[in-house]
Amino acid sequence: MIKITQANREHSQIIAEIGKQAFWESHGHSASKEDINSFIAKTYNKAAINKEFENANILYHLVSFNDKIAGFSKIELSTSNITIKDPNITKLDRLYLLKEFYGKNLGAKLVDLIIELSKQNHQNGIWLAVWKENQKALNFYLKTGFKIVGEFSFKISETHSNPNHIMYLKY
């Protein structure tokens, strides 16, 4: 059974733990171990996640499969992108699933919810950045209707960046 719930500050630790593991699973080979560890330590900790809950435009959702938390999403309402001219657009900042839950339609269910929330908040579309070498994610977003509209250099560390596509789904 799939269940999606809106997360709150009480979920910060589990979000951080899933973020660490999912980032390693999908991006761990994209840079040196030191760079990845540094990025994860800075990004996926309880204090950093807690801070994000102070912003009313940031919404986290947890997805569970058979009562086990399998991943999360993070969106930021009304977040512009230099390559997209439309006003009032949502950024899909993170959609992370633990590898053991791949292929269970959880990502699609999360995206459906995110799109609906974005529309309810009078947004005109949703955008994201995806690592060019993450073919599984790229294919998923293309299948969902997103189009590649630009490029972005995702900074892992002071000395390493990963090339990303900017993708956009206009409503």
Describe it.
The chain is of the alpha+beta class and 171 residues long. The protein contains five helices and seven strands. The chain has helices spanning 12-27, 33-43, 46-52, 106-120, 135-144; strands at residues 2-6, 58-65, 68-76, 89-97, 125-131, 147-155, 161-170. A seven-stranded mixed β-sheet has the order 1-2-3-4-5-7-6, sandwiched between helices. Strand 6 (147-155) and strand 7 (161-170) form a beta hairpin. The radius of gyration is 15 Å and the shape is globular.
Supply database-style keywords.
35% helix; globular; 171 residues; 5 helices; alpha+beta; 7-stranded mixed beta sheet; 7 strands; single chain
The best one-word shape is globular
> What is the helix/strand order?
EHHHEEEHEHEE
**CA radius of gyration:** 15 Å
Annotation field: number of helices: 5
Report the sheet with the most strands, covering strand number, pairing sense and barrel closure.
7 strands, mixed
Q: What's the N-to-C terminus distance?
A: 29 Å
Low-confidence runs of at least 5 consecutive residues: none
Assign a percent range to the helix content: 25-40%
For the largest beta sheet, what order do the strands appear in spatially? 1-2-3-4-5-7-6
Estimate the strand proportion.
25-35%
Tally of strands: 7
Overall average pLDDT: 96
Structural class: alpha+beta
